[in-house]
Write a structure and sequence with these properties.
heterodimer, A: about 325 residues, alpha/beta, TIM Barrel, eight-stranded parallel barrel, 11 helices, about 35% helix, globular, B: about 300 residues
Chain lengths: ~325, ~300
């Protein structure tokens, strides 16, 4: 299986290439991609140079243009697609049907990947994307079990890429407006979720309270480790019970499922984390690369360190295991 | 002189789990009393619930059609299991009614057939709407997240096409493979005992500081606040909006439809409509923030709405 690695900066891009990535994915420095964070992403020139560097090392580059085009400003997304093609990207990762149609029509030779944000979760959905836009690969939403994936790959003429490590969306990706309900900014429209611009921490007696917009997302007692207030990883009250209503502050780790995913017909494993630093990228990519090549019995030791780098130092196999539901 | 056609009222599918008789009687009353032209129905949120409403679909459709309503059948919002895929395929193959697509599988299977696109499909611009229209979509209900500036631009770019917006009801904000509703009661999705039926209007989720925030409805998360577009609708109607969607809550939806009809007919002012609806659906805050490019939970009062076209 290919290892698809994140890069939020040219430095992280180089680290990913050095560490053994088969492909690196990245985006332009604007709202055309779903990690539109301050200080992150690539200028046109940086993109061109990075793609050239990767090419010289036989590493592919996938350019993510995976937000939804704002009505009236479609030209911003079209231009980003044009520039990614000119920069010689190996694939464009797209979520918006209108943008897919543009790329499929204008650049029929350009390899088109379907972003996880498009939420293609079954064979009929993927057949539609292949038929309508000539999609070559689909990144699956994190709503499927390994068994679901095996069934799905048998019924389609399209490669499948799945998330293996890093941040975990609890909700079906691309179908969540929780962030914009609280802040006005969403992954689909602005390329951000639970944005730092709307985060506030305040001390309330002995408690540290984290807020997103006007809403309390968590409350940490003395000595309790605090975390970033990502909306779906917050603590809430239902009835009289307080707890993590959607998901604990954990991240995804399916290293134990590598063989099952390979057998299920998965083409590529994807590491989340374009917002992470270059040291993180280097460590995760090289560990994952070794894990992919190792015998199952050797894997645990290889990845123990990796798990320490995860959000909250705790991981889950998420929806890949039926019991998560 | 130019006259603006009045938009039609459309009733969206019941997102919540109501038992069979409650579901049937709700639609019987809609058929007999509610001034809505379009009714979209059928389980949309969770395939496990389908057997509750399915025995009553035929009689409900018959009653609605006898009353002159145009019926559309809804498809599932999230399709992951083979059983669910088969259900969508069978529905599309066998239906003599138009179908509303709520996921990509339905969009694919409906090519060349008369169909609608539901608000759970990501249509953020006219380029996407054109792709869907070229495949046979005849009506598109835009996602609740869209600001007025985007809606106006889409209407302008596709004159004559039937667009619909979500104007009343708790807004669908997210869907997951995991059932937070069942989990909150110590169960899992696969062994849920249909526990979401205990909350026919959603299970309130509050912040640790006791702020009302969201409601759970099985695998779906909705806003606690109820979308309420009143005077906000005027510029959209003027720009050619075709349909106004009312999403069923566990309240008097006949009265909700009457108030909207009166408002659209110019017989009731927006402020008055809001006052009425606060009695019909008491204790639930109204919101229109998404339309004003604000946080979705916000309520932008009428004075501010004057700037609608400039947000």
């Amino acid at each position: 299986m290919e290892l698809i690695c994140p890069a939020g900066t040219p430095a992280a891009f180089r680290e990913a290439v050095e560490a053994g990535a088969d492909a690196v994915y990245c985006g332009f420095r604007d709202e055309t991609n779903a990690r539109n964070f301050p200080g992150l992403n690539f200028s046109r020139e940086e993109m061109r140079q990075s793609i050239a560097l990767a090419r010289s090392r036989r590493v592919s580059t996938f350019v993510a243009l995976n937000t939804f085009m704002r009505a009236g400003d479609e030209a911003l997304w079209y231009r980003a697609a044009d520039d990614a093609v000119v920069a010689d990207a190996d694939a464009l990762i797209l979520a918006d049907f209108g943008l897919m149609a543009y790329v499929a029509e204008k650049y029929p030779e350009q390899r088109l990947h379907v972003s996880v944000q498009a939420s293609a979760s079954n064979p009929d959905a993927i057949r539609f994307l292949v038929e309508a836009f000539g999609a070559k690969r689909v990144v699956l939403p994190r709503v499927l079990t390994v068994q679901d994936i095996a069934r799905l790959t048998r019924g389609i003429d399209c490669e499948v890429e799945v998330f293996a490590f890093g941040g975990l969306c609890v909700m079906a990706e691309g179908r969540c407006s929780l962030s914009s309900y609280a802040t006005g900014k969403s992954p689909n429209m602005n390329g951000v979720c639970s944005p730092a611009s709307h985060v506030r921490y305040r001390q309330d007696g002995a408690d540290l309270v984290s807020e997103l917009g006007d809403y309390t997302i968590n409350r940490f007692g003395p000595g309790e480790a605090s975390g970033y207030p990502t909306l779906c990883k917050g603590r809430f009250e239902i009835g009289d019970v307080e707890g993590y209503a959607f998901e604990d502050p954990v991240s995804l780790d399916v290293i134990d499922e590598i063989d099952a995913l390979r057998r299920a017909g998965v083409t590529a494993l994807k590491i989340e984390g374009r917002q992470r630093g270059k040291a993180y990228v280097a460590e995760v990519v090289s560990s994952m690369k070794r894990a992919l090549q190792a015998e199952p019995a050797e894997r645990a030791a290889l990845v123990a360190r990796l798990r320490m780098m995860s959000e909250g130092q705790r991981t889950t196999t998420g929806a890949y295991d039926k019991r998560w539901r | 002189m130019t006259t603006t056609a009045k938009p039609a009222l459309s009733l969206g599918p019941v997102y919540f789990l109501w038992d069979g008789p409650k579901w049937r009687d709700f639609y019987f009353r809609i058929a007999d009393e509610a001034p809505v032209e379009h009714v979209t129905l059928g389980e949309t949120v969770c395939s496990k619930r389908q057997h509750f409403s399915e025995p009553h679909v035929a009689e409900v459709v018959e009653r609605l059609e006898a009353a002159g309503k145009r019926v559309t059948l809804s498809t599932l919002a999230m399709v992951t299991l083979e059983r669910e895929s088969r259900h969508v395929r069978d529905l599309i193959r066998d239906s003599v009614h138009p179908v509303e697509a709520n996921d990509l599988s339905a969009i694919g299977l409906l090519k060349g057939r008369q169909h609608s696109i539901g608000p759970l499909v990501n249509v953020y611009n006219a380029a996407t709407a054109r792709v869907l229209a070229a495949r046979g979509a005849e009506n598109i209900c835009l996602p609740p997240e869209l600001p007025a500036s985007s809606i106006l631009r889409i209407l302008e770019d596709m004159p004559g096409f039937s667009f619909e917006i979500f104007a009343f009801g708790r807004m669908p904000l997210a869907i997951s493979a995991r059932c937070a509703h069942a989990r909150s009661k110590g169960l899992t999705k696969d062994n849920c005992q249909f526990i979401c039926g205990e909350e026919p209007d959603g299970l309130p989720l509050r912040t640790l500081d006791r702020q009302s925030f969201l409601v759970l409805n099985g695998v779906q998360t909705l806003s606690n606040s109820c979308a309420m577009l009143g005077d906000d609708l005027a510029p959209l109607v003027e720009a050619g909006l075709s349909r106004i969607r009312l999403s069923p809550q566990d309240c008097d939806m006949v009265r909700v439809a009457e108030v909207f009809r009166a408002m659209l007919d110019g017989e009731m002012a927006g402020e008055e409509a809001i006052a009425h609806l606060q009695q019909v659906y008491p204790g639930i805050p109204f919101s229109n923030g998404f339309l004003h490019a604000r946080e979705g939970a916000a309520w932008v009062a009428r004075g501010r709405a004057a700037s609608l076209g400039h947000v």
